[in-house]
Amino acid sequence: MESVELTSDVPAEPRQGELDLPPSVSEPVALTIVEPAAVAAPSVQTPEAVDHVSAWKRMGREVVAGVQTLLSAAVYATLIVTFGVQVARVDGLSMAPTLEDHDRLIVNKLVYELGEPRPGDIVMLYYPLNPEKMFVKRVIAREGDTVRIVDGRVYVNDIPLHDEYVPAEFRSHDDWGPQVIQQGYYFVMGDHRNNSSDSRHWGPVPKKYIVGKVKVRWWPLQDARIF
């Protein structure tokens, strides 16, 4: 910036510590010299300190957002499992070859709140003899139907069951019935007829024990399927 020097006709002020006495004053006059008060320098944060504080604030906001996301996910998962769908894993081979051991399933828990299980549905149910356990079976007959098994061949209301999904080597050769399924109950069987504990052994299942309908096998991915 260019410097500009200013001049004035006003007499110069006496310098600090000097006196400019009028001629008529014969005795010196005592003067008190007041030093200018010191001005405190304003505190200034360095850029490094500002960046450090900002980083902590950003980290705090990210942590809070992450916790909120986790809590929301937990709530949604609880609502889904409680009221909508459930993820399940197959343990065992009683539904082979339709479902294999360790297959992962998605079960629709709402469908039977609105309707009734139908023959052919693959369902997840509580084991009647120990409701702490859960099984996956296929509905064969519903209330009012008469079930009879002759040498492993299943008849519902004296009509042979269309069960081409059961390979010959998986068929059993047992006899059962005939029996009329009581009201509110369902007759269920595993597709692996000679390796399944089902209604042939512990009787029909009450509807209240049927949790939902198996809708999707999502694992293994190469065998993913909608039922």
Explain what the structure shows:
The model is unreliable at 1-34 (pLDDT under 50). The protein starts with 46 loop residues before the first helix and ends with a strand. It has a domain at 85-226: Umud Fragment, subunit A, CATH 2.10.109. It has 3 helices and 12 strands, in the order αββαβββββββαβββ. A hairpin with a 5-residue loop joins β11 and β12 (225-226). By secondary structure, the protein is of the alpha+beta class. 20% of the residues lie in helices and 26% in strands. The strands form 2 sheets. Strands 1, 2, 3, 4, 9, 10, 11 and 12 form an 8-stranded antiparallel sheet that branches.
Low-confidence stretches: 1-34
Strand content: 25-35%
Q: Would you tell me the structural class of the helices and strands?
A: alpha+beta
Please provide the count of β strands.
12
- In this structure, how is the largest beta sheet organized? 8 strands, antiparallel
Q: How many distinct helices?
A: 3
For this structure, the CATH topology of one domain is: Umud Fragment, subunit A
